[in-house]
């Protein structure tokens, strides 16, 4: 009897949350402006050092994103393509509530291994649709080639950035020939509605695993409505619960200021748009024939409660049958827990070196 009541409560909570999600998405997007007045960024990103680029960003010109460029470390020989000698560089695309700052430490690791990298800072408008994100990314890629020289690009996308990465390698036209490979980290396969239905048991388990306080701290009724209204996370408790391991040191070395800075950036400052995360289920059938001819890595977090590897990886392998799969041990959704340098950072460096170093 008790188990039946638990299942019924979980079903009611899940159904209520999805209802609020649908209604608030539809209604509140009509109340909010289409673009936040401030497109928050680090303030010291590479493009702000280029003459005129800051003004373009402030005006919201499509195809002009803030980004951070980290070249190879001094004295390190850049990894190049054996066919034409152009450098192999990494393009980082962050997820919701994050920005180019999220990749700074990882960019330094790649620089020491011979891989220059670009970390984009996506716009934060509440109605930023998938196509507008892709227009921004493709336009910025064209500018990067002019400013920093042409290169072959390995796309690395995390969470919602992983969904955008899948669209990018599938749909990009002007820059498609420059993609050398792709890494989808802590994300969901770009799927259709039936895949969403099959993943409902995962959502049910998530509701069951999270404490009842989550109703008021993020993924439940109040938190979902708050996110849809403001674009923000409800609290730092929610951020820690869904992004980090529930136990262990409450700190991170991803940011120079540790967990305090992480909370400041993701909870206090960030604005997000989850439309691409919802919309891809209703897209047309996906075909990844072009990128499937190149190296692909599915990089999952062992303790990810949002996109757990046992559920996501089999679906990924249907779409990317030749992909490599790595599960980062002891990491939650954001790969920012203690030991991330080895289980996530070094794993990525090793994979890139294996596939692109001569």
TrEMBL record:
InterPro entries: AB_hydrolase_1, AB_hydrolase_fold. Residues 90-334 form the AB hydrolase-1 domain. It comes from the Eukaryota. Gene3D superfamilies: alpha/beta hydrolase. This is AB hydrolase-1 domain-containing protein.
